[in-house]
């Protein structure tokens, strides 16, 4: 999860209390530009193994090396950038080593490398308008990049390699009722995307583009369905100085977990692989 009070990415076993003693991993950037961590996810690479991807409303996006240490810090960062606006998500396009950031001010920013195995060579190569851009997700089966924004989930084709990589809006898109917040794979169904907006949570078929309402709960900031079929989410509680967050992660089949004084914004399944 991204926990914005301590400003850390924290990993816990869902079956144990979310206490410091029970943490499996953590990452603390602890530097200017990383305030209010807004997204995290892990991806697999041939060069570094598992890496963490993060976006922060303070202005930065970046990746860090998930080492054998329990706690990672700023010195484990492999690359970072300032896409502008209010960064809300970062995704990796495998094989070509490109990254795409979503900024809620209304655009996607594409970064291309000169060498796939060297994140330090990444540089901005493109910016694409998407009103209210909040979520971005790579679709390995269809080789598409999906993004959610204001009242839409939009698919993009990817062309080129290295510094010539570009994304182009495709004809595949699905209307939402409100501002899209979170976009995740359905780990239990490779044809499905899961997206939340201001009014609920929806399942979208990547093949037919049909949309099914799963929940009408409002203010869902993160929603994930695991391979077992269990789902969990974070709902903005409209309380405190960060009314978009919550100290509680809600589970459908397990005990809810609350960390006193915390403000979780995103919660993720600790797995690199999905379809």
Keywords:
275 residues, 4-stranded antiparallel beta sheet, 4-stranded mixed beta sheet, mainly beta, 0% helix, Methylamine Dehydrogenase, Chain H
CATH class division: Mainly Beta
Overall outline: globular
Low-confidence stretches: none
Instruction: Give the fraction of residues assigned to helices.
Output: under 10%
Task: Identify the CATH homologous superfamily.
Answer: YVTN repeat-like/Quinoprotein amine dehydrogenase
Structure description:
The chain has no helices and 23 strands. It is mainly β. The chain has a 4-stranded mixed sheet, with no helix packed on it. The protein is globular.
Topology record:
Layout: E1 2-3, E2 8-11, E3 25-28, E4 37-45, E5 49-56, E6 61-65, E7 71-73, E8 77-81, E9 87-93, E10 98-103, E11 107-112, E12 123-129, E13 135-139, E14 144-159, E15 166-179, E16 182-185, E17 192-197, E18 200-205, E19 211-215, E20 220-225, E21 231-235, E22 248-251, E23 257-258
Parallel strand pairs: 3-7
Antiparallel strand pairs: 1-2, 2-3, 4-5, 5-6, 6-8, 9-10, 10-11, 11-12, 13-14, 14-15, 16-17, 17-18, 18-19, 20-21, 21-22, 22-23
Pfam family, one: DUF6528
